[in-house]
Amino acid sequence: MPYKKSYILLVLSLLVTINSFSQEEEIIVKAKDTIYTSPNEFDMLSPAKAAFYSAILPGLGQAYNKKYWKIPFVYAALGTGVYFYDLNNTNYNRARTAYKLRLDNKPNEFDGEGDHIYLSDDALTRAQESYKKDRDLSILVTVGIYVLQILEASTNAHLLQHNVDNNLTISPQIIKDATSNKSVVVASLNFKF
Q: pLDDT tens digit string along 160-169?
């Protein structure tokens, strides 16, 4: 018990007596082709601007971050969601119209006469439910992709402000274990000062 109290006292005294300071002046370090500056130059509103631009027009936040190659993927994903919404909505309306016409004993495109295929009343009801469910799911997926591209632009703008260089690297490697003669995946973490 006395050791526990002395240990706690030692840890508390170390925490109280340690002087720490932050870097206040700007330091510029020049590497081969990149200039790293202190965090004082970072624009803290950059992630908010990127998110705002992406919310106004999808892909504009990616353009603000100068990641132009991501813009076609944003529009392809959003366009796919809109396409499937339109397709399912069209098929839902076709099945609904045919079911309403059948209830009024009028010819429809699924009555089996001429070149038309025959669908029963139960099949038309199930088709309406299925297409409506798929249409609603397409809306949710499209909204999710829209929100995801806003988050991606904001996160990318935030991560662009971090100093990333070769002085801190993680490199995975495959080595052969001498004792078991099996390949093992390892990762090395390197710090260079």
A: 877 666 666 6
Looking from the CA of 91 toward its CB, the CA atoms found within 13 Å total 17
Torsion, Cα 111 116 117 122, to 10 degrees, reads -30
Question: What digits encode the pLDDT tens for the residues 20-42?
Answer: 444 455 555 555 555 555 555 66
Distance CA 77, CA 57 (A): 14
Strand partners, 30: 35
CB atoms closer than 10 angstroms to residue 63? 16
Residue 146 structure tokens? 């829209």
Side-chain-side CA neighbours of 69 within 13 Å: the count stands at 0
Q: How far, in Å, CA of 92 to CA of 139, rounded?
A: 14
| Upper half-sphere CA count for residue 48 (Cβ side, 13 Å) | 3
pTM score of the predicted model: 0.62
Per the prediction, the chain carries an average pLDDT of: 81
